[in-house]
Design brief:
heterodimer, A: about 70 residues, alpha+beta, four-stranded mixed beta sheet, B: about 140 residues, alpha/beta, five-stranded parallel beta sheet, about 40% helix, about 20% strand, globular
């Protein structure tokens, strides 16, 4: 099981969502995807996408305006 | 079965085509299946090299408005339509071209982006898909 990092800092709508989805499609079951970004709406919307795809949200953190979301496929 | 979104892109205006792709990509990112039907002025955007060669629906001001909006979008880091179309196809989105529009506007397949178009169809195909959709929009 691998860990995949997706850097979406300074990207705006809908790039963080799209890049998260692209990474999730490429990942294998059990992989952990960590997305980092600065677009505030995406911080709320990526967990919504995780929920609607019935994946596991491992955590959401924010430090100095940069959020990080961890997802298990 | 996956949830589905079906979008009609009737407008060829730059701002509306942007909206269509952002919504389409958002839906794909949420795990939905998405089909975008390009018809009338929207079909113009599927011609080779014409994806972003469009004016604004309002305040175009002979291209000045478009120039300003493009600059603002670049500053804000908004992705280009080229990237959005590429991502849309990569995430499994379907691009459909209206064959009636092709006939009346005399557009041949060779003039269209055949590399991204998954099918050519009429209203029946749209209605059939719309019946199975959770979201459908006319843009």
């Amino acid at each position: 099981m691998g860990e995949i990092k997706v850097d979406c800092k300074n990207e705006t709508c809908p790039v963080p969502l799209v890049e998260t989805r692209k990474a999730l499609r490429k990942a294998s079951k059990g992989d952990v995807i960590e997305v980092m970004g600065t677009h505030q709406s995406s911080k709320k919307e990526i967990p919504m996408a995780v929920e609607s795809m019935e994946l596991e949200l491992l955590g959401v953190r924010e430090e100095g305006g940069v959020w990080s979301i961890r997802i298990r496929k | 079965m996956d949830k589905k979104a079906t979008l009609i892109v009737h407008s060829g205006d730059l701002d509306k085509v942007y909206s269509a792709f952002i919504i389409g990509l958002g839906a794909l990112s949420m795990g939905m299946e998405v089909s975008m039907y390009f018809t009338f002025w929207g079909l113009e955007r599927l011609k080779k090299g014409k994806l972003d060669k469009a004016s604004l629906s309002r305040m175009n001001m002979l291209g000045l408005g478009r120039w300003m909006i493009r600059r603002k979008m670049k500053q804000a880091g908004v992705a280009s339509l080229d990237k959005m179309l590429k991502d849309f196809v990569e995430l499994g989105g379907k691009i459909l071209a209206c064959d009636m529009t092709m006939e009346i506007m005399r557009v041949d397949k060779e003039n269209l982006r055949e590399d991204v178009i998954s099918d050519y169809c009429g209203v029946g195909t749209y209605i059939k898909e719309a019946m199975e959709s959770n979201v459908t929009l006319f843009i």
